């Protein structure tokens, strides 16, 4: 990659580079407002605004092998004498693509217009005039003023995000450029999202507030025909997904699966970042009803001014649960350290997956020494939730013999750990058989996920078995545990 320009690379699921170590150059011309969409044949269309001339929107078509299908410098798709911004492509389902952009040509010099055009696989415009068809005039103040998605029927849906708190319009454009329907009250707020669900279904997610101290995360389920499929919650312009009184919705995301819509949000005390708050999740069923409480399920707790959560993402699973991935930033540390953390919420709302656990395993008398004929010892255990989130955990106990062979004594799955609570067991009694070989043993307690043998916390102590000889007949039998684990 020695030549200047814009480059692209394709990776497989293992992260291997498929277009050579040096990637493929898309264009030698510098640009901004990069966007891309698939072409339906393993390649993609790429669009941008030229840096040297803001009146030119340029594009390129790469095939599945990463080779440019147009001239090395691409094609000038739209050319005017006025600023053009935010070119956003979407596949047309027939080998070409749609393009939507912001245009300052007169009479839209103050408040720009939104224009649209459709191109074939050769980059030729299919609608007249070639410079695009006007859709609507609006003002905006963010870097992503609209979202463009294929409608599954060779047209597109356009979700516009104007300035302020909304409302935000939603349009459906047909293959000939005609507006098939429009809804000027589809969503609210500058961070609203439009995502595709099952065929013919789309979901909207957006923050809404009548005053800054009362904020809601709302949603809508919309058919490709423009019908709203979920009822509005009384008093709100949409279906309620999440609300915590006197709290602020700072960052959020939505993700559909199997007719349901999942949401993940960072909710904080104040309207400014670095306030104490929570990472919360919610799910709406096929009818738009909340599966969990209106406050959602707390997946993690912010530590006030010392940390902040950004970019929350959600990944629903086949069982109806949800995994979240977020960036945690730690202030007052070198370089403001950033880490990625993940959490899983089970279908019933209980937390699953790793969270910090304090584990203690303590014999009632020490040292623990078993005579040659065997015997028993008693102990206590405790598992504490040190992160005040709670959830389901598994416990399992093992004994590691002097030969490093590990015997499982017992396991219990799906124990409920209260948020900030402790699971404690006392007066458990372990029997050691006479056939157990002599030597030093390690007796261990693990807390975490038993099926994968992933421990989120553990503790152990050693004991001695006296006597002569080696592994006797039945040495792995008779390890009885008395008491309720």
What amount of the residues lies in strands?
Answer: over 45%
Any idea what the radius of gyration is?
30 Å
Q: What composes the largest sheet?
A: 5 strands, mixed
Helix share, percent = under 10%
Find the count of extended strands (DSSP E, 2+ residues).
35
How far the N terminus sits from the C terminus, by CA atoms, comes to: 61 Å
* Number of separate domains: 3
Structural class: mainly beta
Low-confidence stretches: none
Task: Provide mean pLDDT, rounded.
Answer: 90
Per the principal axes of the C-alpha atoms, what is the gross shape? elongated
How large is the count of helical segments? 0
For the largest sheet, list the strands in their spatial order.
28-34-33-30-31
């Amino acid at each position: 990659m020695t030549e200047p320009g814009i480059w692209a690379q394709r990776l497989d699921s293992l992260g291997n580079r498929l277009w050579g170590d040096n990637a493929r150059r898309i264009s030698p011309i510098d640009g901004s407002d990069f966007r891309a969409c698939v072409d339906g044949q393993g390649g993609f269309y790429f669009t941008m605004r030229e840096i040297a001339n803001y009146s030119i929107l340029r594009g390129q078509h790469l095939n599945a092998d990463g080779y440019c299908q147009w001239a090395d410098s691409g094609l000038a798709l739209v050319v005017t004498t006025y600023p053009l911004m935010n070119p956003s492509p979407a596949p047309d389902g027939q080998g070409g693509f749609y393009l939507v952009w912001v245009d300052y040509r007169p009479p839209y010099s103050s408040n720009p217009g939104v224009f649209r055009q459709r191109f074939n696989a050769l980059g030729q415009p299919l609608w007249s005039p070639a410079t695009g068809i006007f859709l609507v005039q609006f003002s905006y103040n963010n870097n992503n003023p609209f979202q463009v998605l294929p409608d599954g029927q060779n047209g597109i849906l356009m979700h516009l995000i104007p300035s302020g708190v909304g409302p935000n319009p939603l349009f459906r454009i047909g293959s000939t450029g005609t507006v098939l329907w429009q809804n000027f009250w589809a969503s609210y707020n500058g961070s609203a999202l439009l995502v595709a669900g099952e065929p013919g279904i789309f979901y909207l997610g957006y923050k809404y507030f009548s005053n800054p101290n009362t904020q809601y995360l709302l949603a809508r389920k919309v058919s490709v025909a423009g019908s709203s499929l979920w009822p509005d919650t009384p008093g709100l312009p949409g279906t309620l997904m999440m609300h915590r009184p006197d709290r602020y919705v700072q960052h959020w995301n939505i993700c559909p699966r199997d007719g349901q819509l999942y949401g993940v949000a960072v909710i904080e005390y104040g309207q400014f970042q670095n306030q104490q708050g929570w990472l919360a999740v919610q799910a709406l069923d096929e009818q738009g009803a909340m599966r969990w409480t209106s406050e959602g399920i707390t997946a993690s707790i912010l530590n006030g001014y010392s940390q902040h959560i950004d970019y929350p993402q959600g990944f629903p699973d086949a069982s109806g649960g949800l995994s979240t991935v977020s960036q945690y930033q730690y202030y007052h540390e070198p370089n403001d350290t950033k880490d990625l953390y993940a959490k899983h919420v089970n279908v019933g709302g209980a937390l699953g997956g790793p969270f910090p656990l304090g584990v203690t395993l303590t014999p009632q008398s020490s040292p623990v020494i078993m005579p040659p004929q065997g015997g028993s010892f008693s102990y206590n255990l405790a598992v504490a939730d040190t992160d005040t989130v709670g959830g389901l955990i598994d416990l399992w106990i093992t004994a590691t013999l002097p030969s490093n062979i590990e015997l499982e004594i017992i396991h219990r799955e799906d124990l409920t750990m209260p948020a900030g609570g402790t699971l404690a067991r006392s007066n458990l009694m372990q029997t050691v058989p006479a056939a157990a070989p002599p030597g030093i043993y390690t007796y261990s307690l693990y807390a975490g996920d038993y099926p994968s043998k992933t421990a989120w916390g553990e503790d152990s102590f050693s004991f001695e078995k006296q006597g002569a000889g080696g592994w006797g007949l039945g040495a792995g039998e008779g390890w009885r545990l008395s008491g309720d684990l």
